[in-house]
Every structure is written in structure tokens, then in C-alpha cells.
Amino acid sequence: MGYVAVKGGTKAIEASVEMYRNKSQHDEELDVGVVRTHMNQLINQVMSEASLYDRDLAALAVRQAEGNMEEAVFLLRAHRSTLPRLHYSTVTNTRDMFVERRVSASFKDIPGGQILGASPDFTHRLLDDSDVYDSGALHEETDVSAYGYRLDDLPKVVDYLEQEGLFEKYPEDDREPDDITKRSIEFPSSRSERLQSLTRGQTGAVTSLGYAEIRGYGYSSHPNIGEVRVGQQPVHIDPFDDGDAYYVGDVELTEVEAFMPADGAEEESEGGQEKTFRIGYGLTFGQNETKAIAMSVLDYSLSHPIEGVATCDDEFVLLHVDSVESTGFISHLKLPHYVTFQSVLDRVRQTKGEKSE
Amino acid sequence: MKQNYAFLDENSKKEIRRKTLKAIAIPGYQVPFASRELPIARGWGTGGLQLTLSLVGQSDVLKVIDQGADESVNAVNIRKLIQDTTCVPDTIHTSEATLIQSRHRVPEVPLEPYQILVLQVPLPEPLRPVEPSERITKQLHADREYSGAWLRLFEQIMKYGSITDDADYPVLVNGRYVMAPSPIPRFDNPKLDDNDGLILLGAGREKKIYAIPPYTKVSSLAFDDHPFEVESFDDVSCRESGLTGVYMDELVDDETGETYYVTNDTSYMLEQLNKAGSVR
User: Which InterPro entries match (chain B) (predicted)?
Assistant: First the structure.
């Protein structure tokens, strides 16, 4: 009879999976539909980081991940890898967005007005144990009939600056973006690669780096939000590339244009530089206002880098904000490293030996 | 949910195979690819897994190793995913496998020309310890500017009296590219040189594929007066099998507190033990 070494990896793994499943079994069923309606903000964040717009699948992922953001994003990204990419949308213009919320921190009286919409910004963060949240009791519908503007044709705040000559519009660039899910980023990065990475970035990571950027590292100044808008953006595809585009649906987006006061660099007028406005841009799936604002700050800092500042370094920012990559690599430290550690031991012992000789 | 054959969609697999061909054509050069997210975590072998999934066909026989063992938790996990999505047969015997995915080890049994060894790579850039920027390391590779890598080894000698790089010891491939051989022990570096089989290396998180084609010259960086050294197991033998000259795990006996050694490549040890007349 031959020798049989101690085995059991398979059994141990099966037992671990079983324990995990048992641990997450509960007395009450949690309906995915309930997650979808009650965990809306979590779903928005998960869709944004997973770059897959599907509320039902995001709700499924959130439930399966027991509310763990990173895990839910991971599930959805893995699912995304199984899907063939059939079409790119045609260029969409956010001027066509059906706006549900829109605020400007720069001008009081913007054409079309400030539209507060639904936001937790002005609620007092007091824990509320009344059953309002459970009962599903609706408050009275807000009356929006008095509003005089078309919500899918609102002007942009930046237009005003442009008319004044305080903002120089960049030439439009409607080239097909470099798709970072089909080609890896190479540095120096293109703006489309930067915007994609940032919008897929982990909400917390993007927020932290954006915060660092305006707090003292890099741009180190207070940007002004020209406009935050949240709304439904129509998406079209042109499958036969004949200009005959089809409407495929709406996606909820958050868009931010931040005004960054800056030196007018190139054309110095005699007697000194001019101050001008530049723009930082943020766009995310779903309502993710803080992330979109932080994204706009980082978009600006990466487009106008300052030497030696980490938050202006595209490699530093883009390679580290991804949730699936950072959590994956950090968690892999749990895996066995017996072979490499043996190799380290060998070298450490060697240097000890060299010393005592 | 229904899954694709080998998990990924066909276009993704095709793209990975194309990048793999490029990697084979330029030995040791890191080819960027659009790494897909898989149902196992980034950093847990997704680079190797994408290579395996894009290559595995119905006629393949699969072996998965982690830390020298087929039963190590991560090996089990990866093998299960590949089998669940392809139904290919598996083996623990190196010589029976056509496709071998491994983490941290090159098997003790030499590869045959019909075999492909896929290594999982956490950190593909050999110059990363001397240069954090990808943009700059790419330039350094283009210029064959490897003085940073050499200087690092030289500084170790100055500081510690010997080269202290442990696993993932840098190699020069085909006289052109300095390459990270993935964290295999130095012990396995000589096996890469003039190998009969194809060796592919995949880094999922860092989005790179690179390769050592069969019969390629691979030499570990070293100096004439400080030659390359592998981990020393010269004066020990495997407690289970009596094998010598293999990579060993160092273990401690629960009862006596004594240190003892066991062959790290578990399937190789089993094969040796099960050979007729070898029962100890």
C-alpha cells in the first residue's frame, strides 16, 4: 500500500463555505425588492464602482454581500466579466438630462433656478426609531406643477461664465474614449482613462484623495461648485453606425462641474498674469454627490498637475482608488506564503552567518 | 446563474490569447492587457486564472498548485472554479497534466514540451523596488537600463555581506529583458533556463502577461565574486520520504519541539513514496 499524505484542503474549504452560508442564514427572508427600494444609496454606490448600471443585480449583490460594499462591487464586477460588450452608446449630452436635483454653490440666481430635489443634506442626523421608515407611509406628494422650465433642457451654469469671458471653453473632443475595461491604462494617461478610473473608484478612496487635494496637498484651495445635477440621462446606441440611433433607456447620473480659480497660464498679458476659471468634472452612475465632487477635484488636479504632489500623479491616484484591486491585494496577505517565507528565512539566516564570521 | 464556458466571454478570452502570443514572441517583456475581474479576489491568482481560462480546452488535463501542494486552500478554490466552468479532468501528477497553474512553485518534475506552466504573479515589475513609477520603469526596460537592478544587489552586498533578495529573484531573459519570475523561490530559478515547456506568467491586478518560451536562456542576476545562490537544504532530508535536493518546508514537531523538513512539492513526494519498494 502506498503512502497517503495528510490531505484535507478540499474538505476544509467546503466546511468553511458551509459555515459562512449558515452564518448568513436568517429567520426572515430579505426580499431583493426591499433592498432595491430601501438601500438606494448603497445601490447607487455599488453600481458606480462596479460600472454596471443595473439596480436589480446591484440589489442582489448587496443582499448576497450582507451589505458589504466592497464585496457587492466585487460580485457585480465579476458578473460584468461574463457579459459580451455589444455596443457603445452614442455621445450623450448632459444638457438633455431630465433634472431631478440641481444646485449651484456659485450663483444664487441661476437660469432655471435651484432645484433642491431629494437630498439628505438638510435633514438633521438624529436617529429616528419611529416606524415611519418601516411603514412605507408616504408623505404628501410635492407639488411641482408651478415650475416654469423644461426639466430636460436646462441651461448650464458654466454658460454664464463663458459669456462673461471668464471661462475658456475647450474644443469638443468626441473621439471614442479609451475603454479601460478592454485595454489597460498606459501612462501618461488620457483624460478618458482618468475619468473612467475615477468614476469606478472606491467612493471612500476618491473622497479621501479629493479631500487631501483641497486641504493642502496640491491644488490646496477651495473650489466652487458651479453645478451639481442629478437626473435621468437618455442613452442611445447606433448599432449600424448609420446615424440612425435608438433610444435604449435612461440612467441616473450625478454630474458635477467645479470652478477652479487658476492662473491663465499661456497668454500672459503685459504687466502680469490674469486669473481665470478652469473646470473640474465629475460624473457617476446614480446619486453620488460627494464622490462626484471629489472626482471633479481629482480630475482637475490630474489635468493640471503640480510637480511632486501625490494627488496630482495619475499613476498614484488611478492605480490605487479601485476597490476590487485594493481590497483584493490587501486580503491576499491572508493566503499562505510558506514558500516565500522559507526563502526569506534562508536569507536572514545567511546574513546572520555572514556577520558572525 | 448560467455561466460561459471557462467563465469569461469569448471576446475576452480571444483578447487574452492574442496578448499571450505577443508575450511569447517577446520573451520576458510585460505585455499590458485589460485584465478582467473574476469571481476570486484580485491578488489571489486572477492573472494566472485568466491565462488558464483563455487556454483551457476540453482535451486538457489540469493541475493546480499553491505553495507546492494541490490541496492548499487556494489551489482547491481555483481548481474548483475552472472545473465548475469547464468540466476538464484534473490530476495531481505533474507529468499527466497538460496545463499547470501554480502559485509560488515550479514543480520538481521537469516540464515536457506538451505542457504549459502558468504562474500567478502578484508584482510583475522587477524594477519596482527601485522605481515606483510605471511610466519610468517602462522607459527603463525600453532602454535596457538595468543599472538600478544591479545597484540594488550591490548595495545588499555592501550592507549585509551577501545578496538578500529572497523569492522572486530577478532574471535576465534571452539576454534582453530583466523579469520578475513571480515569487518562486530562488531554488526554482534554474528550472526556468532552457526549459522544455512553455511558461506563462499572468498578473491580474497589475494587468500584465509575460512569457518564457521553451528553450529560452534565463539567467539570474549575480556577480562573478557573489554568484547566484539558491536556498540551502544541503544538509537536510525529507522526514517523510528521505528525499534530498528538493525544496523543503521547515516544520516543528509538536511533541519534541524539534525542527524537521518535508518535501514541499507534495505530489512529487507522494509519487516517490508510492514507487514500488520505496516504503520506509
Answer: PhnJ
**Of the candidates A212, A192, A167, A226, which has an alpha carbon nearest to the alpha carbon of residue A306?**
A212
**Closest of B107, B68, B279 to residue B192, by C-alpha:** B107
The length of chain A, given as a count of residues = 357
- Alpha carbons B40 and B81: distance in angstroms, whole number: 9
Mean pLDDT of chain B: 95
Q: Helix, strand, or coil here: A113?
A: coil
Q: How far is the C-alpha of A321 from the C-alpha of B179, rounded, in Å?
A: 27
Q: Please write the tens of the pLDDT for every residue from B27-44.
A: 999 999 999 999 999 999
Q: Chain A: give the shortest CA distance to residue B44, in Å.
A: 6
Q: How many Å apart are CA B264 and CA A336, to the nearest integer?
A: 13
Query: What is the predicted pLDDT for the residue at A1?
Result: 41
Q: Which residues from B are below 8 Å from A193, CB to CB?
A: none
Please state the rounded mean pLDDT for residues B261-270. 95
* Residue in A with minimal Cα distance to B11: A84
Tens-digit pLDDT profile for residues B60-117: 999 999 999 999 889 999 999 999 999 999 999 999 999 999 999 999 999 999 999 9
CB B227 within 8 A of CB B201: no
Q: Would you state the pLDDT for residue A165?
A: 82
Contacts of A77 in chain B (CB under 8 A): 37
B8 neighbourhood in chain A, CB within 8 Å: 81-82
Asked if B41's CB is within 8 angstroms of A8's CB, the reply is no
Buried b (16+ CB within 10 A) or exposed e, A35-63: bbebbbebbbbbbbbbbbbbbebbbbbbb
- pLDDT at residue B280 is higher than 60: no
pLDDT of residue A145: 64
Contact A343 B38 (CB under 8 A): no
Contacts with A302 from chain B: Cβ below 8 Å: none
Which of A9, A179, A340 lies at the smallest CB-CB distance from B104?
A340
Distance from CA of A197 to the nearest CA of B (A): 13
Does residue A315 belong to the interface with chain B, where contact is any CB pair within 8 Å? yes
Q: Is the dihedral of CA A342, A343, A349, A352 positive or negative?
A: negative
pTM: 0.91
Those residues of chain A that have pLDDT short of 50 are 1
pLDDT of residue B177: 98
Instruction: Report the pLDDT averaged over residues B4-26.
Output: 96
Reference B224, options B152, B163, B136, B146; nearest CA is: B163
The complex's ipTM works out to: 0.91
Distance of alpha carbon B117 from alpha carbon B194, whole angstroms:
14
CB neighbours of residue A134 within 10 Å: 8
Tell me which residue in A10, A78, A345 faces B38 most closely, judged by beta carbons: A78
Query: Inter-chain contact B41–A74, Cβ cutoff 8 Å?
Result: yes
Q: In this complex, which of B15, B104, B270 lies closest to A3 when CB atoms are compared?
A: B270
Residue A3 and residue B274: Cβ atoms within 8 Å?
A: yes
Cis peptide bond prior to B129, omega within 30° of 0: no
Instruction: Answer whether A82 sits within 8 Å of B168, measured CB to CB.
Output: no
